[in-house]
Amino acid sequence: xxxxxxxxxxxxxxxxxxxxxxxxxxxxxxxxxxxxxxxxxxxxxxxxxxxxxxxxxxxxxxxxxxxxxxxxxxxxxxxxxxxxxxxxxxxxxxxxxxxxxxxxxxxxxxxxxxxxxxxxxxxxxxxxxxxxxxxxxxxxxxxxxxxxxxxxxxxxxxxxxxxxxxxxxxxxxxxxxxxxxxxxxxxxxxxxxxxxxxxxxxxxxxxxxxxxxxxxxxxxxxxxxxxxxxxxxxxxxxxxxxxxxxxxxxxxxxxxxxxxxxxxxxxxxxxxxxxxxxxxxxxxxxxxxxxxxxxxxxxxxxxxxxxxxxxxxxxxxxxxxxxxxxxxxxxxxxxxxxxxxxxxxxxxxxxxxxxxxxxxxxxxxxxxxxxxxxxxxxxxxxxxxxxxxxxxxxxxxxxxxxx
Length: 403
Description:
Distance between the termini: 75 Å
Number of domains: 2
């Protein structure tokens, strides 16, 4: 038996790989801001795995505003393969380097490709890169062994690293499950850069005898069943196929623009943000300048109150924009979050109650009862830059929608 394993190892190292990592845009329109990315499974191919799937999207006029990227990676039965976590890092890099215009991304994955997608997500969150994931609006997982694959237990670990990763008791499967539950599934209980809830749908093949339905559905609350077995489930031959109809539904739900239905509410949110921005500039920056002219404890406390009140009110306006499925507000939220982060770093160590809310304030036990002037000057410069960026972004939105 040892001799057989030795021969297999030799084959693994000398056999030619089936294909290298590949990617191809089936459609790439310069004005599109939405994209659907397909990720194949174990030993799959970035094109043949999906057959007519991308063409059906191209032929659907209601989906013209979605670009289509077929994404691949090395995966062979008898050849050295990168581990699934490494492929996840590879996908993460691909997503990070997407053109800035793509503000709505949908990931559609088959079999092991779903583990690649999930590994990419938890890797980003572990690094505190929630902002990098906010463009991902939905993930669809077809026949993905989320709880591992029992058949993998019969393959020695050294034969194929990707198969080894898919064993139900592998460190990879267990850690990926725990990380996803903590960082994604329960993300709503945490508001930081290490947690983010991404809508995810798992799909079981009605005739799939390879990956059990229990492994596919796992702990995911949103699951469906489609036509076909493990391979044919992602090879729809017509627009009537359940797999295509499901993906189409997800794409249309994301592409529905509330501006069409509620232009008044959209304008109202913009006006509220604009008013808050103007009011905050009117009160906050004069308070900062007065402190800089003559630093005192009482003047610094006024700056604290204005900063907390102003950024809180700005945040309220920005959060209302979350009701819109519009890329217009993504940059606004990012800038306000930067401003809050810079501000929170200045108000540390001592917690006090102000206006019924608990806030982090500066440690007034230090000499002078206020921070060094040079630190406040730097914070003032950063804050003014953020407010300037907010104003510029608002003007862009107004021009884009002729408001």
